[in-house]
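We were asked to recover a plausible sequence for a given structure. The inputs and outputs are reproduced exactly as logged, with field labels preserved.

PROBLEM: sequence recovery
POSITIONS: 134
GIVEN STRUCTURE:
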């Protein structure tokens, strides 16, 4: 097994551990599953494994809530540049973004204003690429 990445520690294991630890106080029967007399290496391993799974469930719920909330607000802030009346950038800045996309990536891009989210996503993906996971 590879080492846990920073994201997995802060975004998955820690929230899962906090949730599981809280559940141990709310449900005393659960406490007996992880803590008998003393904390053992096996008990700690079981706790981390269950916390990892719980963290993934919490992240999935969070991602769903995020998608719904941003959908109601007109999409992610990175998509707001495509709106005709963008409140975060003016028309001159939008044309400057299009020009920079042409210069840096050699991509021919029409007007950004009025683009659909599907049209804009590949361009934004090149502007802000995801870092490869180690």
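RECOVERED SEQUENCE:
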């Amino acid at each position: 097994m590879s080492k846990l990445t920073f994201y997995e520690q802060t975004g998955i294991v820690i929230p899962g551990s906090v949730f599981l630890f809280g559940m141990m106080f709310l449900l005393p029967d659960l406490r007996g599953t992880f803590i008998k007399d003393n904390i053992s290496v096996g008990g700690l391993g079981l706790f981390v494994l269950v916390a990892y799974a719980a963290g993934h469930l919490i992240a999935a719920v969070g991602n769903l809530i995020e998608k719904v909330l941003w959908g109601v607000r007109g999409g992610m802030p990175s998509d707001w540049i495509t709106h005709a009346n963008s409140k975060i950038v003016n028309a001159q800045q939008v044309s400057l973004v299009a020009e920079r996309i042409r210069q840096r990536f050699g991509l021919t891009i029409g007007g950004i204003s009025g683009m659909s989210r599907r049209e804009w996503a590949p361009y934004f993906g090149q502007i802000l690429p995801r870092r490869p996971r180690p």
